[in-house]
């Protein structure tokens, strides 16, 4: 009986990551761990939120006993906001963070980022979006100038590849096979740059004044 394999699809998610005020001095070290874990840092900025802005960001936590301490902590100094992208970014980032309480994280997930950099249940070093929808909201909050367009998946992704990518790539691979260069990857990269159908074409008309 022939097994039907699902067609490959493109899924790229984005999530928000925050390096909280008490560990901003570990920024480079944490970013290195993020990159080595397969994430791409799409956007990054350092900022300091007011207590009011923190209240708006954590509006879903309003009314809980820890809310005043949370807003005071998050507005106590500068933080680093990053948009991370990769396959299943939301779930992978949550897994890398570990439990929200750093004391518990050290018991159950000793290699997680919150276990390594966090202090307790409040000062847990890092933030991650809980879901794709909350990631979109939080990214818009921290990066209001960014336009988040839905990333194509399924049939839309296949249509995009068939229309915009495969024709040029097929022509490039055909030329590569004919040329047989010593460094095929570099040759193909240069060929694709040169034959990019979307590359701007600059036409400069020589005027009579330029002749004279």
Please explain how this structure is put together.
It is found in: Cytoplasm, Cytoskeleton, Flagellum axoneme. Belongs to the NDK family. This is Nucleoside diphosphate kinase homolog 5. GO terms for molecular function: hydrolase activity; nucleoside diphosphate kinase activity. The protein is α+β, with helices and mostly antiparallel strands and 212 residues long. It contains 10 helices and 4 strands, in the order βαβααβαααβαααα. Helix 8 (155-179) packs across helix 9. The radius of gyration is 24 Å and the shape is elongated.
Tally of individual helices: 10
Overall geometry comes to elongated
Succession of helices and strands: EHEHHEHHHEHHHH
Number of strands: 4
Could you give a quick summary of the protein structure above?
The chain has 212 residues and is α+β, with helices and mostly antiparallel strands. The chain has helices spanning 27-36, 51-57, 67-74, 89-97, 102-108, 113-117, 132-142, 155-179, 184-194, 208-211; strands spanning 13-19, 40-47, 79-86, 126-128.
